[in-house]
Every structure is written in C-alpha cells, then in structure tokens.
C-alpha cells in the first residue's frame, strides 16, 4: 500500500531580514554571506510568534488546498526542533488550534534538519502497514530562537517558517511517498548541536564536508533502490542549508542546474521546515507541478541524514 499527495500549504513570517540588515548589526557583508551560502534574505518570526502559530497556518492552508477539514485527517506528524513548549507536542497543539474532535493521534519528530525525512519515513511505514488513511506532515521551525547575534558564523544562516503536506493512502506504490531512507551517527554529536542555553554550536567547515557526501550518498541509495537515475527525476530538492552544498551534492549525482530547486536564497536554512516549505512554496508558485518525481535528500545535527523519493 502506498500514498498520494492531496494537499499542501506553507507559511512564512512577514518580517524579512536581508544580508544588508545583518551588515548594520554585526561585522559581516552581503558579499561574504552570498559567496559562502547563497543566502540573500530570510524570514524572522515576530515577537511572540511561535512554531505552533506558523505550523497551524501552514496546516490550515494544506487542508484548504486538499478541500478537507481537520477531522478528515487521521494522524499529524510534525518535524520541529524549536517549539516554545517542551510539551505537549506541536502536532497535538495544531489539532487543538484547528478544532479537531476525532481524537486522532499526533506527535513531533525531532530530527533537526533531517526531521522532515524522518517524518516521511514514519508516514511511509504507517501507510505500508495500512494503519492510517490520511496523514498530515508538518515541518515548522523558529530557528531565531537559537540565534546568537554575537556569533556571525551561525547567526546569518537560519530563518523561520512552516510547510505542510497531506498524504492519503493509495493502492499505487508509485505515487506519494515512494521510498525513504534515514540514518544517524551519534558519534558526530560534537559537529553540530544545541547548547543548554539554547544556542547553536557548529563546526561549519566539518559540517560542510559531511553534508556534501552524506546527502548525495542517501540520494544515490534511493535512486539505486528504485532502479532510476537522475534522468528519471524531475527535481532534486535538497535540504536548503547552503547553496554550495546543494550544487556540489546535486552536481555529483548528475543533476543539471535547472533540475535543482533552490529556496535557500530567500528562506535561508529553516531546518526541519526546509524541505516541506520548499516543496509547498514550489508547488504554490507553479515551479514544481503535480505528478513530477522529486528526489529529496537532507542532513542535519546528530548527525542525521536521509532521503525520500516522492511523486507530487
Ligand atoms: N561574515 C563575515 N565573515 C565571517 C562570517 C560572516 N557572517 N562568519 C564567519 N566569518 C569568517 C570567519 O571568522 C573566518 O575568518 P578568519 O579566516 O579570519 O578566521 C572566515 O570567515 C572563514 O570562516 P569559515 O567558517 O572557514 O568559513 P566557511 O567557508 O567554512 O563558511 C559556513 C562558513 C558558511 C558556515 C560553511 O562552513 C557552511 O555552510 N557549513 C555548513 C553549515 C551547515 O550547513 N549547517 C547546517 C546545519 S543543519 C542543522 O541540523 C541545523
């Protein structure tokens, strides 16, 4: 048993923080940020605007897009690492915000930037087991919660936002979430992690080196497993961490520039929201079209990494 995508939605906070805005508050330049990361701007949540607020708007838009209500959803899985509250989960809070009354299950997945691939992996398993009919998958982050404006090497890299996708079970194994693979190596904890005072500790150059091999490895595994090559894939949508990482990894797999979806220039790194937001945004703007085949690799803190193959 497989699945198919029946709805999507996204949300970006109103406030846009440009590289020039950073120039005014720290020792950095637009040129450095663009050259090293490909980022031009990112969205910052307003004071008091939390992960659950962004997640609920993206979820509502996905429901409207699918033409269904929250009680038509059988499970909510939310990928997030930056919720305001330790409990309950953002998934359950979204159910509350949207007035769900069916007692459907909801939970969060904490996989940092790979969180949305872990969430897809869970959803694929539930569909394969025939356990749920419709699953809503949300990726939502307020990365500005972790930003230390005294650390220019990480402050410029992150943004806030949310995306949501709704999958419905299907008898076809060739639509929706076709395949997933997820991995983790806890021995690499020191490379990138949160600190007890809610900051980001990152060895940028080492993270970069790992990212340019792990994302293509996971993507290659998925393609081999499906018996396809880059020629058969319409778009590669890598985790939007850094334009150089995206181009290096996708190029190594044989993807031409016109098949690589890039939103990091506008959204920066939104961690667990990155891929869901990028896909919803691309569908909304007619860049990616229904029916297209998407290769979807990600990596993040843990280290964690993985990939999915999805038909829109
Ligand atoms: N503006 C200007 N100069 C800066 C800035 C800045 N914002 N930040 C760092 N620099 C300086 C450094 O101080 C250093 O100066 P020095 O040579 O005088 O010491 C110089 O730039 C080079 O610093 P590096 O860290 O070596 O720069 P690098 O080329 O590696 O680029 C970057 C840094 C962009 C962070 C890169 O390493 C990278 O993208 N790494 C991967 C990060 C990533 O993808 N993280 C994903 C997180 S996923 C998750 O789970 C959250």
Explain what you see:
There is one protein chain. This protein has about 300 residues and is of the alpha/beta class. It folds into 2 domains: about 1-170, Peroxisomal Thiolase, Chain A, domain 1 (3-Layer(aba) Sandwich); about 175-310, Thiolase/Chalcone synthase (Peroxisomal Thiolase, Chain A, domain 1), CATH 3.40.47. It has 10 helices and 13 strands. Strand 12 (about 295-300) and strand 13 (about 305-310) form a beta hairpin. Helix 3 packs across helix 4 (about 90-95). It starts with a strand and ends with a strand. The model has no long low-confidence stretch (mean pLDDT about 95). Bound molecules: acetyl coenzyme *A. Acetyl coenzyme *A (ACO) binds near residues 152, 207, 211 and 245.
């Amino acid at each position: 048993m497989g699945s198919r995508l029946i709805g999507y939605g996204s949300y970006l906070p109103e406030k846009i923080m440009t590289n020039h805005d950073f120039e005014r508050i720290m020792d950095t330049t637009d040129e450095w940020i663009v050259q090293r990361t490909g980022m031009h701007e990112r969205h910052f949540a307003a004071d008091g605007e939390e992960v659950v607020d962004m997640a609920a708007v993206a979820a509502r838009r996905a429901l409207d897009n699918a033409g269904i209500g929250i009680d038509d959803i059988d499970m909510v899985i939310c990928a997030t690492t930056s919720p305001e509250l330790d409990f309950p989960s953002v998934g359950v809070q979204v159910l509350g915000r949207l007035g769900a009354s069916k007692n459907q299950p909801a939970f969060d997945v904490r996989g940092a930037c790979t969180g949305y691939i872990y969430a897809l992996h869970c959803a694929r398993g539930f569909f394969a087991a025939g356990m749920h009919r419709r699953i809503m998958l949300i990726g939502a982050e307020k990365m500005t919660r972790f930003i230390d404006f005294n650390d220019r090497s990480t402050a410029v890299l992150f943004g806030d936002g949310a995306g949501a996708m709704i999958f419905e079970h299907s008898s076809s194994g060739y639509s929706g979430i076709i395949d997933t693979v997820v991995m983790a190596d806890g021995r690499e904890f020191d490379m990138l992690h949160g600190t007890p005072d809610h900051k980001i500790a990152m060895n940028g150059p080492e993270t970069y080196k790992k990212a340019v091999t792990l994302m293509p490895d996971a993507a290659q595994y998925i393609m081999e497993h499906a018996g396809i090559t880059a020629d058969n894939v319409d778009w590669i949508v890598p985790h939007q961490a850094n334009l150089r990482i995206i181009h290096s990894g996708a190029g190594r797999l044989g993807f031409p520039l016109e098949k690589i979806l890039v939103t990091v220039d506008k959204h920066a790194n939104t961690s667990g929201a990155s891929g869901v937001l990028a896909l919803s945004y691309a569908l909304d703007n007619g860049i990616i079209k229904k029916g297209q085949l998407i290769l979807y690799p990600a990596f993040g803190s843990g280290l964690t990494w993985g990939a999915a193959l999805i038909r829109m």
